[in-house]
Amino acid sequence: MKPYDILPSSRFKGRIILPGDKSIAHRAVIVSSISSGRTVIDNFPVNNDCKVSISAFHKLGFKIKRTKSDKIIVFGKGLNGLTRPKGCLFIEESGTTFRLLLGILAAQKFETKLTAGKVLSQRPMLRVIAPLRKMGAKITAKLSSPRNHEPANSRTRELTIEEYPPIVIKGGNLKGITYKMPVASAQVKSAILLAGLYAHGQTEIIEPVKTRDHTERMLQLFRAKIKHKGNAIVLKGRQGLVSPGVVYIPGDISSAAFFMVAAAIVPGSSILIKKVSLNPTRLGIIKVLKRMGMNIRLTNRELKVYEPRGDILVKSSSLKGVRILRREVPSLIDEVPILMVAASYAKGRTVFEGVGELRVKETDRIRSMSENLKKMGADIRVVRAGKSENIIIQGVGQLKGASLKSFGDHRTAMSAVIAGLAASGKSSIDDVSCINKSLPEFLSILKSII
Ligand code: S3P
């Protein structure tokens, strides 16, 4: 692949509509497949990860049709509509598909083998396997991984036994559990909730910090009964789901974040982003950018829908450094890379508390972002903080162009593009094809507002 060159941009102006939220879209495919009735999913994002969810459900015996527009139609077959796939299920690089699917497969009487692409095969699965085993599923996985032994950050990496794809899973006859989650992870919570739908008795999950609640909202839209008690979620087992007919997926706030920061750091910019998901568990990016001094207005808010949405108007602003608290991190975990760019362009110090989970995303994002931004002149330090890590960025006001790497990670690549557009001088990125994982339209949308 040819390196992608970026020249400094003068300003961004315009109005954009983004494809649907990736997290919500995965849940829409999964939940509509195991419900009764037909579901039209509107504003479906056609990216690599969401295509993987569709193809996995095809292989599990479901009919899912793509229309010419951005809609897909899922023909639900109810909770027990899955059939044994021919051969193994290859989940490519979609971590959300992999972990959520484990929750459903944990309840099936047949055995399934799940395999993954090179990077997902090195991402930890014990966090989801452990509670599913407690519920009664039989799961075998590959033990330990080269990534655990990588010297990249051996001082901060604990050498614990982990479990990785490929995974063989066989289930049936699950029982509900009460589970106190050791890691704040929406994927793990979702897998347990999906398994809990099939279980005898009730399932109760206690989160250390509230994570994105798209699974709970999607299940409720499909008439499941779920109770919330503080940080605990309680679901009664053996509940059937009923399709509401149409599910609209609001624009992805994690994708919007790149355009928001672009508008913030390129003087003279003003961008209106239409119909974005404003789910309260995902608003960390907006709260932090506002604290940094960004000019952001939310308009046309529709709050009485299963997933709140609205328009975001962002204008360039001079940013100041802030402290991002540990308990805020789950609400902006995927936005830390682009916030690291914003922090470098800000005045003063920004501290990201307890962001160690970034080490196990599509790449080690602490490393990928630090390496790129340091090449551009940023001042970044990473320090140990209990079991996690803090990132400390002293804003330098302006970065300079450099030769950057995507590390095969979509959010590192998009952050590098935005950092490069605001920098002085030319930048280049080794490979931007990984952007297709979440937002294949990224570069064309950017061009439309330059
Ligand atoms: C996701 C949850 C988060 C997030 C990921 C998508 C989801 O991961 O980083 O991109 O859709 O549930 P964790 O559950 O590992 O925190």
From TrEMBL:
Binding site for phosphoenolpyruvate: K22, G95, R123, Q187, R365, R411, K437
Subcellular location as annotated: Cytoplasm
Catalytic activity, reaction form: 3-phosphoshikimate + phosphoenolpyruvate = 5-O-(1-carboxyvinyl)-3-phosphoshikimate + phosphate
Domain of life: Bacteria
Keywords in alphabetical order: Amino-acid biosynthesis, Aromatic amino acid biosynthesis, Cytoplasm, Transferase
Domain Enolpyruvate transferase: 8-444
Active site: D334 (proton acceptor)
Pathway listed: Metabolic intermediate biosynthesis; chorismate biosynthesis; chorismate from D-erythrose 4-phosphate and phosphoenolpyruvate: step 6/7
PANTHER family: AROM/DEHYDROQUINATE SYNTHASE, PENTAFUNCTIONAL AROM POLYPEPTIDE
Designated name of the protein: 3-phosphoshikimate 1-carboxyvinyltransferase
Species whose genome carries this gene: Candidatus Sherwoodlollariibacterium unditelluris
